[in-house]
């Protein structure tokens, strides 16, 4: 791939253990490279299966300059297509979500079935071959209810490794049997990498996230031991060991898996929650009375799951919170948050949306502010890469190392 000498040098001189240079966050040329090397080449998490409960249900996703249509077909399979008519290129579905019987172009009514085959095209003559004008497919994978797409002609082949490792962790929560109780989209005025870096550390949590740290142990994501916190850290370690034994007896895996340097990088771990230990809520108790899957007890901690390059998820006994990050420009990023509860849970009876969403609505807004501070700071002539904390920012280093490695491979640096 042809890139300028400046961008090639930027990639080559990245310093391990330090934040990225400012152009990584602000340059339109770097953003274009990000789209080509990352978002057009890797498995990108974009939706959840409960968003498509019935045949004909669809969502659209704008990714790396492409509009992608994700739809459930009549056999209940999830499929993905370029959202472009094969006639003269009109956008087929122009809403974020909806339901169709067939996929009908709004321009000249070319009609496709839910597997993408062209079924009807009026006035095209006897020689016209419908079979050569099916919708162009996009690779799609369904991981225990989390939907990933890949725009590349030949997607990374290691998704199978992700599936094999993660299904035992995710399947007990039975995401496909959930429904979306709430979805909130926010636009952060910051580069997508700053959004991901902020997510990959909790150095900032105690000072900035009073709602989240009601239930979240800050020790669980890196902490420097001191005389002041030694007792608390020791108690946390004992709690983790005790809970891990209980979870093992329930066939709930909890041990950390860390594969963040893989092409399709990921990490997971189940950790105890603080207070009552039930859920990420303002009182640490369940937000929904209807527990997920076959769970009979609520205090199952929180299963965290991260994927490179753009998602993180929290699975609890009563609900799931799923986050997808979609870059819009060098300085703007869409953060889409979904809260999922059991499909039989009744709003106003089993759960209250305001209570369900309170912690992460507050946390997302706080994180947006922090990301925007960082984006503005990176525009200063005084900005230079700073050192990561070896205790609390190890996962940030792993993210940035993965990211720069993917760029280097793409440009042959």
UniProtKB/TrEMBL annotation:
Keyword Ubl conjugation belongs to the record: no
Keywords, in A-Z order: 2Fe-2S, Iron, Iron-sulfur, Metal-binding, Monooxygenase, Oxidoreductase
Top-level enzyme category: oxidoreductase
UniProt GO molecular function: 2 iron, 2 sulfur cluster binding; iron ion binding; monooxygenase activity
Ranges where the Rieske domain occurs: 43-149
Cofactor: Fe cation
Listed Pfam families: Rieske, Ring_hydroxyl_A
Residues spanning the membrane: none
UniProt-listed Enzyme Commission number(s): 1.14.13.239
Family affiliation: Belongs to the bacterial ring-hydroxylating dioxygenase alpha subunit family.
Name assigned to this protein: Carnitine monooxygenase oxygenase subunit
